[in-house]
Design brief:
single chain, alpha+beta, Cytochrome p450, five-stranded mixed sheet
């Protein structure tokens, strides 16, 4: 292994966000390690750097995700760094109550019923790309599809996807925007969903916002902040995860033409491709927890009240769990990859993201015998600490060999 002259404080820099894996490999054996999670001034009202403990070993990450009593989701930075999001910043019993309610909107039966509509949108977007010699798969496909899908589930106009994507990107951006710019965008998003919820109280519809407005749990309706918080979570997580999953998957396959032909002949491999993509290039790289008591991981003592960053991306390439972790292989046992989390916070939209990726890949395999990189270079995103994906991914989709 090449030794890198690095420190953990580089983990939040743009160059590491764009290519974090060499740093994970170098730092994992020292994990847990304390580092600067956010620099001074990144959060309004906090003038000191915000430090956290990075968990990068698979065993530590898996254990922390399963132990929500010690590694809690509701911490003091929720509402300061970003607005509070339902579920992701909740612990039991509040989390249990809310999860039980929204689970009904993401059942396998509902997703199965949505698949024909998703396929229609997929084919519409693919038709537009087919007439171009070269397409930026992110702007032309991977961004609009997931936003339109989650917009349909929520019951908001899918044609507003450009504005929704801008809100989502701003929510996750820490290095490229000031706290004031992020706050303004977040307030606009909260106001929008507040208006949508108010409209559903007047006239309901067959959508998730109506279900939230009309929900009654133990004799109580959901508060406006809960409804808005879940709508924001659904929009952000529902598009960012799938957008980056699709982009990462196609970025991997474009350099494996033999595998592309193998997939065209044997579609039973599609699920394995999706799951291995989730492991090797996890769309969500890290999320935070707070310790509720003194604890010890891998021989390191972490005090009560410490901010902890759970590195999904690093855990999914831990050689102790996944031999030869930098190789893209379809013969792995991936039942325990943590790309969608683990435990009570396992991603609610995982089946939906998988469905969109599967419909996408099958549609492209049906239409295009050849996929090649475009003439313009691909560019990784560098502004969000949480996600790993492309800002730009030009591809040539060819109808003949």
């Amino acid at each position: 292994m090449t030794t890198l002259p690095i420190s953990a404080d580089q983990l939040s820099t743009p160059s590491v966000i764009a290519n974090p894996y060499p740093y994970y490999h170098e730092l994992r054996e020292h994990s847990p390690l304390n580092y600067v999670f956010l620099p001074a001034g990144a959060v309004a009202g906090i003038n000191e750097p915000i430090r956290a403990w990075a968990l990068m070993r698979y065993a530590d990450v898996y254990g922390a995700l399963r132990n929500h009593d010690t590694f809690a989701s509701s911490h003091s930075l929720a509402g300061k760094v970003v607005p509070r999001l339902a579920l992701i910043h909740d612990d039991p019993p509040r989390h249990t109550r809310f999860r039980h309610l929204v689970n009904k909107a993401f059942t396998l039966k509902r997703i199965e019923a949505l698949k024909p509509w998703i396929a229609t949108v997929v084919n519409e977007l693919v038709d537009h790309m087919a007439v171009s010699k070269e397409s930026d798969i992110m702007q032309d496909y991977a961004i609009p599809l997931p936003v339109r899908v989650i917009a349909r589930m929520l019951g908001i106009p899918g044609e507003d996807y450009v504005r929704f994507k801008l809100w989502s990107d701003t929510f996750l951006a820490f290095s490229s925007m000031t706290p004031e710019e992020r706050a303004k965008s977040n307030q606009e998003m909260m106001a929008y969903f507040g208006q949508m919820a108010a409209a559903r109280r007047t006239e309901g519809a067959e959508d998730l916002i109506t279900a939230l407005v009309e929900a009654n749990v133990d004799g109580e309706s959901l508060a406006d902040t809960e409804i808005i918080g879940f709508c924001m979570l659904a929009l952000i997580a529902g598009n960012e995860t799938t957008t980056n999953l699709i982009g990462n998957m196609l970025g991997i396959l474009v350099d494996r033409p033999d595998l592309w032909q193998q997939l065209r002949a044997d579609r039973s491999l599609v699920d394995s491709v999706i799951n291995e993509t989730l492991r090797i290039e996890s769309p969500f790289q890290r999320l935070s927890r707070i310790t509720t008591r003194d604890t010890e991981l891998s021989g390191v003592s972490i005090p009560q009240g410490s901010l902890v960053t759970i590195y999904y991306g690093a855990a999914n390439r831990d050689p102790a769990e996944f031999p030869n972790p930098d190789e893209f292989r379809l013969d792995r046992d991936l039942r325990n990859h943590v790309a969608f989390g683990m435990g009570i916070h396992y991603c609610l939209g995982a089946p939906l993201a998988h469905a969109e990726a599967s419909i996408t890949l099958n549609a492209l395999l049906d239409r295009f015998p050849v996929m090649q990189r475009g003439n313009i270079p691909a560019i990784r995103q560098t502004t969000s600490l949480m996600v790993y994906g492309y800002q730009q991914l030009p591809l040539r989709l060819l109808t003949s060999k």
